[in-house]
Amino acid sequence: MREIARKFSELEKRGEGALIAYVTAGDPSPQATPEVVRALVEGGADIVELGIPFSDPIADGPTIQAATVRALRAGTRPRMVLEMVEKIKQETRTPIVILSYYNPIFKMGLKSFFEEASARGVDGVVVPDLPVEEAGEYKEYAEAYEVDTIFLAAPSTSTERLKKIVDYTSGFLYLVSVFGVTGAREKIQEITVETIRRALHFTRGRIPLAVGFGVSKPEHVSRVLELGADAAIVGSRLVRIIEENVGDEEKMIESLRSYTRQLKEATHRKGK
């Protein structure tokens, strides 16, 4: 069993949903990322998602775009992110997922990318701008190196296409819960409720459903899990904590650990 599947199985037995924590790799510096991930894991993150900084992050809102700029200015490059993963996995079995736009992967070459990603301990990859219709070769290489392919579905995804996306997905389905880009929202929107219910029709019993974009507070985490999702993905709020504490790494690490702990407490399902 792969590590992501093993994690979801363990959480199911404990009556917990999964907390997936996103940060941009190399923000505020490549040297800080292993310590940032350590804080997230100590706070209770079940899976950590590391974004490879890219110059044209079309799915990201202002908070993560700013993190991308900080990471690029600090000299972060795709292969450095894979090296960070290797260092992180020397300390923890927590699954690590890489989020990358397709251009850096294409530039490295599919075989080279997945060979190195697998060797360094990457458990899954998310590519927001790669449609399943063009992902055949990508999927073949990922499977050859036993790396999960996590595809995204959105409120606008048709039923026919949602079926196809689920067929291509392993690890978990990343459900974009709102229209628009990443970023913290005040509350869970009605479109999110409807989108989760529609996706569950295709994922239940097949693959875990993880909900992201706009999920930023403990009450958001509780709500998406109550609606039937298996995991909540929190990114922008954690990235904002890093942004607010650039220059004070000790405070940043403690704030990340503390807020992640609050988010994780919200994954405990009622009655279990």
Looking at how many chains there are and whether they match, the oligomeric state comes to single chain
Q: Could you spell the SSE succession in H and E letters?
A: HEHEHHEHHEHEEHEHEHEHH
In total, the number of strands is 9
Tally of helical segments: 12
On the 0 to 100 scale, the average pLDDT is 93
Question: Which percent bin holds the helix content?
Answer: 40-55%
Contiguous uncertain segments of 5+ residues: none
Rg on CA atoms, Å? 17 Å
Question: What is the first-to-last residue Cα distance?
Answer: 25 Å
Gross geometry: globular
Strand content: 5-15%
Can you characterise this structure?
This protein is an alpha/beta fold and 272 residues long. Helices cover 49% and strands 13% of the residues. The chain has helices spanning 3-14, 33-43, 62-73, 78-89, 102-108, 110-120, 136-144, 159-168, 190-203, 218-226, 236-244, 249-265, and strands at residues 18-24, 47-51, 96-99, 124-126, 148-150, 152-153, 173-176, 209-212, 231-234. It has a nine-stranded parallel sheet with strand order 5-4-3-2-1-9-8-7-6. Strand 6, helix 8 (159-168) and strand 7 (173-176) form a beta-alpha-beta unit. Helix 4 (78-89) packs parallel to helix 6 (110-120). It is globular. The two termini are 25 Å apart. The mean pLDDT is 93.
A few lines on this structure:
The chain is of the alpha/beta class and 272 residues long.
